[in-house]
Design goal:
This protein is α/β, with parallel strands linked by helices. Helices cover 55% and strands 13% of the residues. It is built from six helices and five strands.
């Protein structure tokens, strides 16, 4: 009887050790999978600069859209309203181009964009021609959006997945 009790105790200790080790491994794997994207999103929201290429009412509307979400800092959002000011965008890590206003300047904007810079084009449905799709398709980190709700989602994803250099 005493021998059976000792064997049951040993099996219990082995089972407990197995559960503890498995739990630690699962916790580490979960943290590595979740913590990195959350950390990158936090850095993206706090430090990354967004340039909005829009004119008139569109400029105010899209800037308000970003600020009303309470996710972005006002100092990190810059607006470009004239083609002559395109040089001001070079230190930004995300470009938001409103096609109605800056579609004709897309080649100049793309020349300023690095591979690590995300570009989101807001265009109404069927507004882009096949040549526009071809030009945009040749560049990395380019997204085309036609709904404002989807725009916020794509901005957040772009901030997580596009690279940037820490300063």
């Amino acid at each position: 009887m005493n021998l059976l009790k000792q064997i049951a105790d040993i099996i219990g200790y082995i089972g407990t050790a197995w559960l503890v080790i498995s739990g630690i491994i699962i916790l580490i794997a979960w943290l590595k999978g979740i913590l990195v994207p959350v950390w990158r999103l936090g850095d993206g929201l706090a430090k990354r600069k967004i340039t909005i290429f829009a004119k008139g009412d569109n400029q105010e509307s899209f800037k308000s859209l970003l600020l009303d979400s309470n996710l972005f800092n006002t100092k990190n959002i810059r607006s470009i309203t004239k083609s002559e000011d395109l040089g001001r965008c070079e230190d930004s890590t995300l470009y938001l181009v409103i096609w109605d206003d800056f579609g004709t300047d897309i080649n100049n904007i793309l020349s300023k964009k690095s591979d690590k810079t995300a570009l989101i084009v807001f265009a109404k449905q069927n507004q882009l021609q096949s040549t526009d799709w071809d030009v945009l398709g040749k560049h990395r980190n380019v997204t085309i959006v036609n709904f404002k709700g989807r725009l916020m989602n794509d901005i957040l994803v772009s901030l997580m997945v596009s690279g940037y250099e820490k300063r």
